[in-house]
Known about the structure:
β9, α14 and β10 form a beta-alpha-beta unit. α4 runs parallel beside α15, α6 (124-132) packs across α7 and α7 packs parallel to α11. It is built from 19 helices and ten strands. The protein is globular. The chain is α/β, with parallel strands linked by helices. The chain folds into two domains: 42-358, TIM Barrel (Alpha-Beta Barrel); 366-424, no CATH class. The strands form two sheets. The protein has an eight-stranded parallel beta barrel, surrounded by seven helices.
Amino acid sequence: MAYTQMEAAKAGVITRELREAAEYEGIAPEALASLVASGQAAIPANRAHHSLRARAVGRTLKTKINVNLGTSRDASDQDTEMEKVRTAIALGADAIMDLSSSGDTRTFRKKLIEASPAMIGTVPAYDAVVQYAKPLREITADEWIAVVLGHAKDGVDFQTIHCGITRETVDLVKAEPRLTGIVSRGGSLLFAWMAMTGNENPFYERFDEILEICREHEVTLSLGDACRPGSIADSTDGAQVAELMRLGALARRARARGVQVIIEGPGHMALDEIEANMALERRLCDDAPFYVLGPLVTDIAPGYDHITAAIGGTVAAAAGAAFLCYVTPAEHLRLPTLDDMREGIVASRIAAHAADIAKGIPGARDIDRKMSEARRDLDWERMFSLAIDPEKARRFRAESKPELEDSCTMCGKMCAVRNINKILKGEIVDAI
């Protein structure tokens, strides 16, 4: 069997994927190899994903962003979802998660893997419900495991598997009810399956089989947070922390088998709790890359949750999160449209970049300096080219044309930059 990325790094072997990821980070391959060997960074790279552009995920690296998409029972147009894929890649997404829960999911998944240079993730629990098309309680433990193997063979780079929710968790949540219960879709399916069958979570009970699948196909294990808080009232409660402790123990078992691991985290969380949660994950999970949804810092902003998530994501990434799952304005409301997705990606990229500046990622400030130079020079085309969303910046200026080309309709002749430039050149300023 070929080396996994972790095994190669431990052996001092620089793989093609590691070299490519290190070049993107602007660091020596040997430095990245040390992080991968220790489990502080992961390079999700399934051997069957031939179009992959390798990227590394880790606290000390550039913050990466993930885009969720996929079909549902009420919105099952695969062509629309593939258009979202192309847009996500054009807007700089590092990863795409296929969360399809209806229709011919395997055909879509294979098209996605073939077309995407971005890392591809899935949640096998969703697909089990679609694939077997029978009552949830009748799905067998073997069938849950078989879906993980199928996704691995198809070329999925990382899989969210809810290994940390157990019968003990079911009892804990029943004994200490949460305001919003279990909001993880995959987690809720397993919670319900355990409650109805009385059986233990097969992903936990047969974790060694999951590791063998991941090792054989080079799948990074994204340990899902079934108990992530769905409201700020539930954040950092007993269920969340107990699951995080269990995920840390599972991560150590995975590393011992040469399987790369990412830990998934909250969720909804008050701003003042985020930094402590990042430190807790580092301590309990030996600094494994932390993948967070938001966190959303308030519960009252439907239609604007891309903003609440960007606020929380910036704080989280600056404090140690490595991977941000984007949130769109449609969160809690509907399947995102293409425009919703664009807004979510841009908000997430802003959060990631702001965090990279805060944590001192080498070169992170360079583009900001170039933008400031372009603004100083009133070089509009250069400003557009440097913008995270050039299309929107260009459209805003086109929709409100100024009298003077070297100003905008906000200030006109009173433009501070224009007038200071003139004074410094010894010219006369006329602000009327």
